[in-house]
Design brief:
The chain is of the alpha/beta class and 439 residues long. The protein has 14 helices and 16 strands. A seven-stranded parallel β-sheet has the order 3-4-2-5-6-1-7, with helices on both faces. A seven-stranded parallel β-sheet has the order 10-11-9-12-13-8-14, sandwiched between helices. Strand 3, helix 5 and strand 4 form a beta-alpha-beta unit. The two termini are 42 Å apart.
Length: 439
């Protein structure tokens, strides 16, 4: 891979990259940056964790001077991703004098309006961007660069109409960059409609490979109380240095957090039910000291913490595409990582679908769960956690419900329907759990 110093970038930008510990470019950066420096539109399909943020921020920072009005507009689907990209932008522009404004719902709009007054680069979520445009606080007539990042997630979250509204209110001669882990037809349609006809298209990595090759994928089958034994056995065997544990609901994340704390682990909780301030505090604590972060799908997109060693799916995601984004939090920037999933006894079809969609082989591992069969569980509602019996059938149908005393039941969209046939139905993404843009 080439080094940044070979790219003839500004001296202060090269200094900023060196201070951040970035000397060599990733593949997506090596391919994208020269094209963007030629002021061409660019469409990039690249798997998560490949360095896409640097691929669009570095050419923008190199190409603009401080002028006190928005020259670059970067649109992202979630607050967490907006904050994260703005943090990188601040570091890249530390010596260049460029001003950054980050805007998203759930925070003071008046403070954001103040920051917009002299901003050169605006980073934000669709709803808040439109709100600020409607108020006249965000002027886009002099925007030269526009970035649509995580475009497929914006589609999933129902933001595409908002995105088109934003695009329509920017100059037609802008340079547009679109980055996405997958390329659904709707995203291709936006590119054709709003980008130059000679836009360059890049696919970084093998097209069918949605996760980086440095992640190992494993699973174990357990239900009910045995899931906690499997969690403990995995932690003992592999000793994760820094780990995100995913659950399917806020209530389950809170229960797993209490379980880990009860058993002496340094664990942090984050989900969409927490205030924005608490969520940002949780991320700070996880980055700086904590070993475990327990979260819902809120943390599956947009978190770039380079040293995450393990992803544990305490609850297997119903949608295999969510699996791809969850495990993408590990093995960032070429590092190695592990992804471990606990599948229920009735989730064989889901496991096969997950491996097929992610195009990975998920291997079963042996864990000594008997050692933890009597592990202490937190009290909940006057009872101890999930009973040892695991799941039980309801009324002869194919739906399963957790036994009494545990966290609440959840739908398993890849399990058998009431007719007994094999059906695949996919839930739409829960915008709240992704921390979607709020007005």
């Amino acid at each position: 891979m080439k080094e940044f110093k070979e790219m003839n970038l500004r001296h202060e930008l090269l200094e900023a990259l060196r201070s951040m510990g970035f000397n060599q470019m990733t593949e997506v950066q090596e391919l994208s940056i020269p094209i963007l420096l030629q002021h061409k539109d660019l469409i990039v399909r690249s798997k998560t964790g490949s360095g896409k943020t640097g691929a669009f921020l570095i050419p923008i920072v190199h190409s603009i001077e401080p002028k006190g009005h928005p020259q670059a507009l970067i649109v992202l689907p979630t607050r967490e991703l907006a904050v994260q990209v703005s943090t990188v932008a601040q570091k890249l522009t530390f010596k260049g004098g460029l001003r950054i404004a980050v805007v998203y719902g759930g925070a003071s709009i008046n403070m954001q309006i103040q920051k917009l007054r002299n901003a050169d680069i605006v980073i934000g979520t669709p709803g808040r961007i439109i709100d600020l445009m409607d108020r006249g606080a965000l002027r886009t007539e002099r925007v030269k660069f526009m970035v649509l990042d995580e475009a497929d997630l914006m589609l999933d979250m129902g933001f595409i109409e908002d995105v088109e509204t934003i695009i329509a209110r920017t100059p037609k001669d802008r340079q547009t960059m679109l980055f996405s882990a997958t390329m659904p037809e709707e995203i291709v349609g936006i590119a054709k409609k709003h980008m130059r006809h000679d836009a360059v298209k890049l696919t970084v990595g093998e097209e069918e490979q949605l996760t980086v090759s440095t992640i190992t994928h494993t699973y174990f089958v357990a239900n009910g109380r045995n899931k906690f034994a499997a969690l403990m056995a995995y932690i003992e065997k592999f000793e994760p240095k820094k780990c995100i544990i995913f659950t399917s609901t806020q209530r389950e994340s809170e229960y797993v957090h209490r379980f880990l704390a009860l058993n002496g682990f340094d664990a942090i909780l984050m989900h969409g039910g927490l205030t924005q301030a608490k969520r940002e505090h949780s991320l700070r604590e996880f980055r700086e000291r904590a070993r475990f972060l327990i979260s819902t799908n809120l943390a599956s997109r947009g978190l770039d913490i380079p040293d995450i060693s393990d992803i544990i799916n305490f609850d297997a995601p119903d949608d295999p595409k969510i699996y791809v984004h969850r495990v993408g939090r590990s093995a960032r920037m070429g590092k190695n990582g592990r992804a471990f999933t606990i599948f229920g006894v009735d989730q064989g079809e889901l496991m096969e679908a997950t491996g097929r969609v992610a195009n990975v082989q998920i291997k079963r591992i042996d864990l000594d769960t008997l050692k933890f069969k009597d592990i202490q569980l937190p009290q909940q509602g006057g009872r101890r956690g999930p009973s040892r019996g695991g799941f039980q059938r309801q009324g002869g149908g194919g739906r399963y419900q957790r036994s009494s005393g545990g966290y609440p039941p959840r739908r398993d969209n890849y399990s058998r329907g009431r007719s007994g046939g094999n059906t695949f139905s996919r839930d739409k993404v829960n915008r709240h759990e992704y921390g979607g843009s709020q007005r």
